[in-house]
Amino acid sequence: MIGSLFIMAVPVLALPAANIFERQDACKASDNYAAVDVKGLPDPWKFADGKAVTTAEDWTCRQAEMSKIMQQYELGDYPPAPESVSATMSGNSMSLTIKVGSNTKTLSVAITKPSGGGASGGPAIIGVGGISIPVPAGVGRINFGNDACAAQMNPRSHGTGWFFDLHGKSHSAGATTAWAWCVGRIIDGLEQLGPEKTGIDTKRLGVTGCSRNGKGAFMVGALEKRIALTIPQESGSGGAACWRISDSEKSKGKNIQTAGQIVGENAWFSPKFNSYTSKTTSIPEDHHFLAALVAPRGLFVIENDIDWLGPVSTTACMKAGRMIYEGLGVRPNMGFSLVGGHQHCQFPSATTENLNSYINKFLLGQGQTKDVETSKATVSMNDWVGSWSASPKISLTAA
Ligand code: MCU
């Protein structure tokens, strides 16, 4: 064990110190990004200071910047890993003890172990508040009780839940950001225990959730880089929809959820967001950046044609997301599937084959995705991405 850790550390130590510092400097994100006046979706290929993104290293820095911008305007702060996490496994239940400063929390997580994973374990999907997609044989399930981590009863729920017990009631994180941090602790526990005890290979983790929990699943995939496949289902506004496009649809008379409405309904976003919901064109980000943060990892976005979710908004926003994947040379790693004519959170069986192509590739290590882009919504992409600088044609491959 010690031997293999030592071998893994060698290439890192071999990096010239000057390079390391140069990279850290280049990636230095600011704590304060100025508001803008941008009608279309902000350009992912340009840093906030106007510099073009041209290399894979630039992209890593731009991702760090986009994350900081999203935290500043709508997500609230995404805290670093805690001082300590200790895990034990008993049957199908993992117990975690998490310490942040002088605060400690103990909780248990229910796991359905994958079958047939062998010594290195098998894949598993983390369900944010449950799973409403079909999970193929051989893939385990992990139940993340998100409401206990950060409550979502109404806007006054902000500050309630074990995330806030650890970080303080006035921490700026919205519930969806808190959920991403809490899921990170589950992954810490799985890593610590290893596949012999959990049956799970932490390099093959997916996350899903529907509706409000779909917003959460998207945020988990965007902020927690150990997730290999993100499957937000019918997340609508606050998830796969872009704030600007939803506002534009609302102004055309659609019954669609907007930023202005959402902060009055629940605590999904940071209180920091309240100052911007009436002027979404001033925010130097939008939700295509969520796809940008997941890239190049696997992403399969499922939507519905229910007006409230914003089918035009989710289609255009996620098309912009796929343009980002394309610019990174990994377009098939992201799929978008809007199939209507069914109840909210009822998975349409005709989509199973497409979904499975992403699960097979990213969790089971088999075959290629079907490079899905399905929607009947008519969108005018030029309005939303027309001012973007040319895509840099970087070539990234998913880990
Ligand atoms: C689509 O997710 C939400 C939606 O944002 C809310 O406005 C509505 O109240 O609830 C949806 C939901 O979570 O349904 C289960």
Summary tags:
ten-stranded mixed β-sheet; 36% helix; single chain; binds methyl 4-O-methyl-beta-D-glucopyranuronate; GCE-like_dom; alpha/beta; 399 residues; Rossmann fold; 14 helices
CATH architectural type: 3-Layer(aba) Sandwich
Q: Pairing-aware structural class of the strands and helices?
A: alpha/beta
Order of helices and strands, N to C? HHHEEEEEHHHHEHEHHHEHEHEH
Strand line-up of the largest beta sheet: 1-2-3-5-4-6-7-8-9-10
Give the proportion of residues in helices. 25-40%
Number of domains: 1
The CATH class, by name, is Alpha Beta
Distance between the termini: 23 Å
Give the overall pLDDT as a whole number: 94
> How many individual helices?
14
Shape field: globular
Question: Strand fraction band?
Answer: 15-25%
Which small-molecule ligands are present, each listed once?
methyl 4-O-methyl-beta-D-glucopyranuronate
Biggest sheet details: 10 strands, mixed
Low-pLDDT sequence parts: 1-24
Number of strands: 10
The CATH topology is what?
Rossmann fold
Rg from Cα: 20 Å
